[in-house]
């Protein structure tokens, strides 16, 4: 199964760094990687990061996948870039959930 996760900063903020950690999967699925790092993004823009990753289904089933997105979000300066880390950056963690359905 191909999965995607996307993180977006709110207006006036930028993403300085982010990753995704798989927290839980139903018993019929396995993650090929438990952490999808900053360097593994498929899109990296000042306000948006995206990742693609794979899960392997060992049999049919339904359940829920849980992951967390960890990010460092900063205030943007007037020309749209990020300020230095000492001025207005903070860590943010968001848990995400998605239904999984294989063969049903």
Task: Give a structural overview.
- 0% of the residues lie in helices and 65% in strands.
- With 104 residues, it is mainly β.
- The chain has one domain (2-102).
- It is elongated.
- The mean pLDDT is 89.
Bulk shape: elongated
User: How many separate domains make up the residues?
Assistant: 1
Uncertain stretches of 5 or more adjacent residues:
none
What letter string, H or E per element, gives the SSE order? EEEEEEEE
Rg (C-alpha, Å): 16 Å
Helix content: under 10%
Q: If you average the pLDDT, what whole number results? A: 89
Keyword list:
mainly beta, four-stranded antiparallel β-sheet, single chain, elongated
In a nutshell, what does this entry contain?
The chain is mostly beta strands and about 100 residues long. The chain has strands at about 1-10, 15-25, 30, 35, 40-45, 50-55, 60-75, 90-100.
Task: Please give the structural blueprint.
Layout: E1 2-8, E2 13-24, E3 29-31, E4 35-36, E5 41-45, E6 48-57, E7 61-75, E8 89-102
Antiparallel strand pairs: 1-6, 2-4, 2-7, 3-6, 5-6, 7-8
